## 1
Amino acid sequence: MRHNLRLAGGQWSVLRAHLFPGDELEAVALLLCGLHRQEHLTALCVRDIRLVPHDCCRREPDLLTWPTEFGLPFYNEALKRDLAVVKIHSHPGGYPDFSRQDDRSDREFFESLTGWTDSHVPHGSAVMLPDGGIFARVVGPDGGFVPVDRVAVAGPDLHFFDREQAATTAEVDLRNIQAFGEGTVRQLKRLRVGVAGCSGTGSWLVEMLARLGIGEIVLVDPDVVTRKNLNRIINATQADAEAAAPKVLVALRSIQAMGFGSKVMPIQKDLRDTGAIRALAGCDVLFGGFDCADGRDILNRISTSYCLPYFDVGVRLDADGQGGIAYIGGACHYLQPGGSSLISRKVITPEGIAADSLHRHDLAEYARRRKAGYIHGVAVDRPAVCSVNGLVASLAVNDFLARLHRFRDENNDTTDAVFLNLTGNYLETRSFPEPCPVLSPKTGRADQPPLLDLPGL
């Protein structure tokens, strides 16, 4: 069983400021975490933080005592909602392991905690180092300590603090190493990346991610290849269209033919399927190649609920009504849990989400409502071409790489979205600093029902 601890970037920043106030003394905080459980993975997703005031503690450079009763409201909420509690403190001297004093204090803390909460919940303890790195452990069923395999931070920069060394590289990785460094390439091999939507932009995302050497790729798309989309699904053939081959299997075939060793999980299901949602929730990074508003909203919700970084890719082509093109462009939006959303950025709207969902699941009712004037401004057939899809998808993949291996001149917190305007021949970036009032409060919900806070799931 693997264990992960996941934090939003804003949560990590708040903890770092509190745990390292500049006086070289230890400090402590409590994390309330939603739980995501799979057969081989338990992820603790930080939902809330309670900072233990410095003046309540006895603080020394290598010793800390604090009143555990300070966390009673957290313990009660954990019991009520089946959540986990993680104690996190600092090691100002940079000691990269749990000390014997940590072992003693953790045993006392966990013994006290299990008196308040259910014993089956994997409560934990973590340590932050001066550079912001975190290592952690949970209490196993037998009361022993179990190391957390990965602590992941989804912020402007992506941080993955792994317990074990990353996989070795091979000759095919040489050019990627020259561009981004061996450490980054090793990290890519340890990541599990989800790609939802394997058609126009999605097929390009899959192609580039696989050739970067991603260790595991989860593919989600319910549709099959047809002749009308052969112009934009790379690696799809006329034979695939005639056989109505599932798009996820076309992508699987392409990845396997590369011979890079990436593991692939193809899921030919609608994104609202709970199995598909749970598979994506088990990933480290999400990419979306959907043009429908409801699918993009679900991916944004998965990102928020499970503390995952999400790269959304969208393409727009507008005809001028006279056989020409009025606008060609696209955008890559990077979504952090706890930050702004596609809704707050006005990329999608609640009306568009409802209309797209109805169009995909009840076409007759959609047509009736549109004819009656209840649905406005929703394009059913959105034009797309291979050249534009590939260009916009590459913006998303390079944005991902820039957050994993910083190479931009500006800090990553100045870039939340990259906009491409081929008609005007320019590229621009924008920042969206305000958190989404709708989704931000749902950060770290994890598996708490209703799933994704959508009663229909």
## 2
Amino acid sequence: MLRTKDQVLSLLESALSRSPGDATELVYIENREATTRFAENVIHQNMDSSDARVIVRLVKDERVAISSTNDLSDSGLDRMLADAAQIASLLEPDQSFPGLSAAADPAAAVDAFHDATARSTPESRADAIVKLANQATSKNVQTSGLYQTEAQSIAVVNSLGVRQWHKETRGELSISASDDPTLGQGWSIGASRDASQIDAIKLGGIAIDKAVRSRNPETIPAGDYTVILEPAAVGQMLLFLGFLAFSGKSFAQGRGVFSGKIGEKVTGENITIADDPFLPDYPGMPFDYEGTPKQKVALIENGIARGVVHDRRSAKMAGVESTGHALPPDNARGSYPKNLVMSAGDAAFDEMIASTDRGILVTHFWYLNYLNPMKAQLTGSTRDGTFLIEDGKITKPIRNMRATPAVLEALSRVEMIGKDRSIYPQYSAMLYVPALKIAEFPFVEDTES
């Protein structure tokens, strides 16, 4: 099990007292991760790993150095501190360093830890996988994927009096279903802080149904189509906006999509997006890796660009205060919104389908990447269930197609927004998003051409 709050803070306090720096920040990250992988309806791997590490940011004579270790003995931590001091002696003074976070009240507690997740066993995960494998076998479909649970604790202390601690759990089940001879493909994903709430039968049914319905896909011409994007596809696009538009570092450096556009219309008026770590359905870490309490940040409000998220360095560059979105100190990306939430609309999914004369239903995207960062334009193919919609009905499966959306432009052409939202996890981020109906969504080719 994870170390207790008292054990962690005592460990860090002791190391802090021995630091040779003028100012010192210590970040503690402990992970307990368990994963069950399966392929061809058979479990083939169980892994259970745990690790704890400490990252130090040490300031000496205006020089800032970073080092880390997972040797948490006194000698191991002392060696880390000595390494940081040695590195600092080789660096030039960092005139842009904003200083460490000053002491603040402990961040608001959030209910993000669940024993059912932390105590997940290989047997409990196997039971869920066997049930969905039996579903797949009855439909002559093969499934693969992973069922993962994680327990994590994070603490930040520094020489200016910051003392923050948090623990959380995460469960995630990702399922791919396929029928290789006829190219049927399906996919689904579920995530919750409480793994007991992940419905393997429901998720398996979704992936298997898509695989069955997408057998023998046809090719349609490239062009601009009305699309209905399922929540995962929406989440995947927003994930890239986190880097391209919502990052304080790129914004302050003048290379972000929102640079110079705060207060301007950037999407349709029906789009509102925020970073909200206090979402009851999936609460996030309530402070950042500098120990600054997180704020809910309005990013786009009724189509208007309202703000970006900052750590201390980008906030200093922009002349504002940190919003509490620093990543670990050994990360060079700067700030990032890890709890993106898009406001829901009032449309039922079936209504979105019924309202479409001709369009494409997209389950999710594969290998999205940057095409034109300053226009927030991406490229990637559809994946695991792409269907043609005709006269308000899903009529047939189509081959995967390469899309080239400029995300903000696409969000300016949203005709309907789903009233139901889903959690989409990606990396260490969480996105809470609805389905969207978007006009004139560009496709350049089918990926089998």
## 3
Amino acid sequence: MTASTLHPATGRDALEFVDAGHSGRSVTVHSYRPAACGPDDPIVLVQHGARRNGDEYRDFWIEAAEKHRLLIVATTYPADRFPGPESYNNGFVVAEGGGLRTRDEWIYGIPGRVFAALRASGVTRRKTARLFGHSAGAQFSHRLMAIEAHGTFEAVLSANAGWYTLPALQRRFPEGLDGLGFGPEQLAGWLAYPLTILAGDCDIDTSAENLPRNPEAMAQGATRFERAHYFHDFAHREAARLGLACGWRLVTVPGVGHDGRAMSKAAAAYWFEGRIPPPSELNPAPAPVA
């Protein structure tokens, strides 16, 4: 598979994709393509969590894919090729020693290039895709929107991130945008984008294994739910202070904790049905044992 085309089969598929900027480190594109899905139907790009389980995140979307004729594309960044949070959540931006890698090394451009490869193959004629990320993938997705151009994405949902990059030019990345060479114009563009922050109101476990506990994260709150509110409120305050528009919206998902499956179902219903399902629908009771 070349870096210029990507042609997933109908049903589940998994293809290696060699990004032009990372020739020695391929990613795995896990996809689901319903038989009824055509080239003009919507595409959802999915960012997995810390377990690097793009295959499972793809499967979380299969029910919605069949219902709404969606092409699901979950790109996996294997831990042996992209180790630790710096190589995934934080985009491979900061090098050892604290300096910045070259812009070509940052991985936030990969989803857009995966989408371009789908277009080049003729799988889709869509000009834009939707982007969903949960947990570590939510860290990735909202930082992507801070750094990359927005033209590829018609809608973005960031769900249950462990902590956030703030829209602040005076704080060093990844806490803020300082050091990236960005100025007021880039900040204004990010704030204006209609980013949706999904927050499960039961995502409040302070002892969770993968909950970030670095000082910058702890300053945003003790739980992921608190940090989502901090991020949203900080953005609106900063926009008001600078006289800028802020298109960000915080949406609470009741009865859900740190659950990629439930948050994927909530995101699908929010986008394609205009609703957040009740907890009973997102957390169904287990089937009785015969």
## 4
Amino acid sequence: MKTKISGSTIVVTGGAGFLGKHVVKKLKLLKPKKIIIPRSKDCDLRNFRNCLKVTKNSDFVIHMAGNVGGIGYNQKHPAELFDDNILMGVNIMRAARQNKIKKFVAVGTVCSYPKFAHVPFKEVDLWSGYPEETNAPYGLAKKMLLVQAQAYRQEYNFNAIYLLPVNLYGIGDNFDPESSHVIPSLIKKFIDARDKHSKDVVVWGTGRATREFLYVEEAAEGIVNALQNYDKADPVNLGSSYEISIANLAKTISKIVGYKGEIIFDSTKPDGQPRRKLDTTRAFKEFGFKSKIDFRDGLTKTINWYEQIFTKKTKKS
């Protein structure tokens, strides 16, 4: 039975973030009565009392808030990433259950999968090994949301679902070199190198590792579809089913931005997980989700958006 969204009150943690803004935009089309977006400066979700307050008298919770970053950020802050993410997850779901929320959508991460999971990753592979070491504290903290959701469903009949999106990219991404993921990091590197006429660009790792990327608007669509149409305990992958090596990704971005110099791969830096590619059969079967945006088209849209923002900021400064 389809979950009715119109006239409801929805709490969207992380609703002001990269993915969250796109989710909120899609939710508004369904005419909810109210969307509550807690901000960290006013509502620290690591505090249980704050979680009780923000979920009171609400119908649904979509939990996307997190402390997250790329490989370098993960290496510098493993304890902080574990603490922050596990505390936020445990507290917001516990509060939602106590406040009798009708449905809880927990958004996890592909980083929860074992380092050497069989490719493409199926949801049943989640417990077949330990995550890639640089991502493990973050990935395991987020995976506890699944354990909590299934435990609450079993003991309290609490309707909590768990989604596993792959690496996201798109308009509104984080381009801060200290915490950005691979696509925004490379876009900024190549545009800066092009504008400064640099002879080369250094990319972390060997370039042999592969990744799958999902355009952020499609991820938002999948999350909202699941809110409306999915009510089971089993986790669900959200991905594009398109796999590309970091080397080919770097070459593709350099061509789109018009960079003519050399690309150097620094093998002293970590590759991260060797391969990432999700099996998205369950998402299509359960709520009809399938990626449709061509990867190069999505990259071009993202790059064009960044160039417009970058140009505006440069002119102002």
